[in-house]
Amino acid sequence: MNRVDDKEVCIMAGSVALRDFRAGDLIQYQRLRSDPKMHRFYSEEDSSDARAGQLLEMFIEQSTSRPRTKFQLAVESASGELMGTCGIRIESPGEASIGCEIGRQWHGSGVAREAASALLEFGFSTLDVTRIYAETISENVAAIRLCRSIGMTAMAERIADRTFKGRTWNTTVVSLSREEWPRKTSRA
After folding, report:
1. Which of 33, 60, 67, 105 is the most buried (most CB within 10 A)?
2. CATH code, domain with 151
3. Residue numbers of the domain that contains 90
């Protein structure tokens, strides 16, 4: 069940729900992002509790924008625990980007795949985009594996695309078109 109206977004994704963030999510979100393993592919500035608070405020503000083009949603368990975040952003007409951040205790559980698959459905069916892409640090093998598991394919690798933690990082761009989506997801 997907619901998009002037008040909130709620997308059911298998055993989890994707919903708009609330101010009360701050402590759980800070705890989730404080895991050192989560910091491997983020800059020092992006790894702080203060940054988690800034992001949460931005996600809440984005949920009130009209027309709405950014949907950074909380991934919540059936018991109400914040498991992470997954988002889709309309970048230009017909094109959107997605990203997912799931707490380490749920890695390998299928939660990220459920959430990302639901965002593909939401993007192609509800937002009517024709192409969805993701960008990630090339060394983030788990993120690339997740994208491939939902049917995305590598489109490009950008060399020395980002600089943080005293080094440069390559990024990988993966993509899926609406025409490819039903065919690829039925085999995945």
Report:
1. 33
2. 3.40.630.30
3. 2-187
Query: pLDDT for 133-155, tens place per residue?
Result: 999 999 999 999 999 999 999 88
Mean pLDDT within 83-100: 97
Pull the structure tokens for residue 170: 């390559």
From CA 95, how far away is CA 135, in angstroms rounded?
13
Read off the pTM.
Answer: 0.89
Compute, in degrees rounded to 10, the torsion defined by CA atoms 99, 121, 182, 110.
60
Contact partners, residue 185, CB within 8 Å, separation at least 6? 117, 120, 150, 151
Spatial distance between the Cα atoms of 171 and 140, rounded to a whole number of angstroms: 9
**Rounded Cα gap, residues 108 and 163, in angstroms:** 29
DSSP 124: I
Total count of domains within the chain: 1
